[in-house]
């Protein structure tokens, strides 16, 4: 698929819908199989050969399921933190370290998240690998999310050099498009992992 860079907001919304539909047309067994392959690619990255502080996420709806990936990462001694909606910085995320006693709640989007506990907040600067959900990605590492700007705000700290992490998108193969429209606040990813390919966008 090829799309013009300057498409309108309406066309962008149509593209988002199209990509969401493509994702939803896969069976849940196919998505589970895809997650297995993505998890294996991820674990083989040189960056993950020592224990890392990984920012992951809880997948919802037809997203590539992250549950088994998260379990696999913890089994390989990586520390996992999951995002919650920031309690007072609107539009921002806060990462909470998972542990044996983590209590769960749902945020206002209905997405499961760890309960806020200041003792277990992981500063973004401690995260070395940030796994990023996406609706679509292109051949340059640009990503389209759900339209909230949450990950763009998180990644802007990295783009400004305030934190040092590696943003890796996790995706199904059907989430690829040749070229996505890009806005000034959109932060491209360094890598996207799909079942069939590890896309490395680093120079
Ligand atoms: N760094 C930022 N600072 C302030 N506002 C931002 C920033 N990044 C994105 N936004 C705002 O967020 C809104 C949504 O951005 P966009 O459409 O790129 O979302 P997205 O990338 O699909 O979502 P997400 O990042 O949550 O996956 C935009 O209106 C934009 O103005
Ligand atoms: Mg964006």
From TrEMBL:
It catalyses: (6S)-5-formyl-5,6,7,8-tetrahydrofolate + ATP = (6R)-5,10-methenyltetrahydrofolate + ADP + phosphate. Its cofactor is Mg(2+). The keyword Nucleotide-binding applies. InterPro entries: FTHF_cligase, FTHF_cligase-like_sf, NagB/RpiA_transferase-like. It holds the Pfam family 5-FTHF_cyc-lig. Substrate binds at residue 63. This is 5-formyltetrahydrofolate cyclo-ligase. It comes from Pseudidiomarina andamanensis.
